[in-house]
Amino acid sequence: QVQLVESGGGLVQAGGSLRLSCAASGFTFSIAAMGWYRQAPGKQRELVASITSAGRTNYPSSVKGRFTISRDNAKNTVYLQMDSLKSDDTGVYYCNFYLGAGVYPKTWGQGTQVTVSS
User: Mind listing the pLDDT tens digit for each residue in 21-37?
Assistant: First the structure.
């Protein structure tokens, strides 16, 4: 059974940093492309970072240069380092499989709340 458990969220001031973690189990993590997604209040869920099994990363312009996705295949964990946080980064952050541009998984975990105060 696939399990993705996010952690590391919290309340941070604008300009601060947070590091999110996602512990994965129930599948062969090392060959899976993974992504971090967020859903801001009143907005649709959006992809904020992706990483392939080979370690290739991609980001939308809204977070590029501020967010860094990484993975540790030995620990079955994917991380999201978020720096220079802005109030617009507030939302619930989820990790999940990355299925390609514009394609979103159907099943989601509970996510972790990130609140950036201005």
Answer: 999 999 999 999 999 99
